[in-house]
Amino acid sequence: MAGESRIDPWSSQQSTDYARIRDNFGLSSVEISKIPNPNQLHRRGIIFAHRDLDVILGCIDRGDNFGVLTGLMPSGKMHLGHSMVIDQVKWFQEQGGDITVAVADLEALATRGTSLKEGRKLALSEYIHNYAALGLDPDKTNIYFQSMRPEVQRLGFTLGKKTNLSEFEAIYGFSGETNLAHVQAPLVQAGDIVHPQLDEYGGLRPIVVPVGVDQDPHIRLTRGLVGKTNWFNLKPRKSGGLTIGLSIQDENKSHMGVLDSGGINRQVRATIFEKLHTCLSQLGFADVLSNPKHGTLEIPGATRGDMSRIKISLLSLERSMGGMGLMPPCSTYHRFAVGMTGDKMSSSKPETTIFMHDTIEDMSKKVKRAFSGGRATIEEHRRLGGDLSKDVAYQYLEFFFEESDTELSSIARDYESGRLLAGEIKQICIDKASEWLTDLSDKRDQWVDRIDEFIATDSK
Ligand code: TRP
């Protein structure tokens, strides 16, 4: 892949060419008509892409279990941009998902030099406190620290066997100078993403990871690693139907009936195929063509639509045989709101964003100075109308502050037609943002002594 189309998850310089990102990295578009009870970000096309979201939508539809895993890096102050992940998480929570949140204290140490102690303090006082105020349900939310969950680190280490420095160079642009803690961070994140599937964390079920699109390299890496651990590959056949192929690896050779000499232990192989037959007949597929010697089994009558239930059954079989039995994570992505100066939003430049702890005065000042889509003179503005695509006040109403679609489109109409002036749309934004910030701060007050309810027992 060309270097220019790499995404650097640790840079504040994010590309905003979303169509290109989607195409370059093979993301799917979100089809709003398929989303039940779409939230504000769905309705406005801000959650714009996904990987395998259909798997989760299927669970929602059938009332099956699914998990949601996301993470936060405790570095700097929490701002508006960070709230979008919570909006995504809340929606999945409302649709029945169980929620796990990773506090990436190891990643903050590796990439920002934040000590674990400082990271913990920041996570509790800034991030988790605001997450609570933004409306996550503590009964269905478990927050843990990377540094305190050995299973996550063990899993990251184990998955590390399936990749190498060249792949890390290709995905992340790492080089000889990259410090080794930074090299470990993506593996720990892969551990974060996968571990809710472990039996002690809820067991085999689809996991969706709602994130900003800057995190996609980690999703891609994790999906690749998971695929390499699977013992049974399931693929569509060219002639229709599906094929299962055994994936022979160092770790599973003997279980798969491969002898040290390279020959096949027929007895072991036959047992595996019997188990495969049992799995498939339980799912209603009696007609299968097996070739134990080649390690393949064809199911002519199965369709692509059957893939996900066959896959789950193969993964449980793998687990019963001693494998990890992991599903590739699903993901959804939001776009980024523009910075208030019209440039990128960044916590290190306070004038580009609104922090959760900003006073109404701070916020008002920033909105008044924010980049505007208004024209040079009132006369020109009345004649030509404002430019919504550039106007920060409008976009912040759209992303964050104006819940009502009707209200938002009426503002848009008035602004584009020149009826509403730049100063006036800014005032609307200030009024709405004041309500939003005041409400958040009230809610924070309510949670001040109860943050502990969100923290998993191993991380208290
Ligand atoms: N890397 C993420 C960030 O920079 C934090 C993170 C850690 C994360 N583990 C995760 C995000 C797992 C999603 C899923 O904010």
Write the layout of secondary structure elements.
Layout lengths: L17 H7 L3 E2 L10 H4 L3 E5 L1 H10 L4 E6 L7 H15 L3 E6 L1 H8 L3 H18 L7 E5 L4 H11 L4 H8 L7 H15 L12 E6 L3 H14 L2 E5 L5 E5 L19 H17 L6 E3 L4 E4 L7 H14 L9 E5 L25 H10 L8 H7 L7 H10 L3 H12 L5 H26 L13
Helix pairs in contact: 5-6, 5-9, 6-17, 7-9, 9-10, 11-12, 13-17, 15-17
The structure holds tryptophan (TRP).
How would you sum up this structure in a few lines?
The chain is of the alpha/beta class and about 450 residues long.
Task: Describe what this molecule looks like in 3D.
This protein has 460 residues and is of the alpha/beta class. Helices cover 45% and strands 11% of the residues. The chain has 3 domains: 2-228 and 329-336, Rossmann fold (3-Layer(aba) Sandwich); 231-320, no CATH class; 350-446, Tyrosyl-Transfer RNA Synthetase. The chain has helices at 18-24, 40-43, 53-62, 80-94, 105-112, 116-133, 150-160, 165-172, 180-194, 216-229, 266-282, 307-320, 360-369, 378-384, 392-401, 405-416, 422-447, and strands at 28-29, 47-51, 67-72, 98-103, 141-145, 207-212, 232-236, 242-246, 289-291, 296-299, 330-334. The strands form 2 sheets. The protein has a 7-stranded mixed sheet, sandwiched between helices. It has a 4-stranded antiparallel sheet with strand order 7-8-10-9, covered by helices on one side. It is elongated, with a radius of gyration of 25 Å. It starts with 17 loop residues before the first helix and ends in a 13-residue tail after the last helix. The mean pLDDT is 96. The site of tryptophan has 15 residues, from strand 3, helix 9 and strand 6.
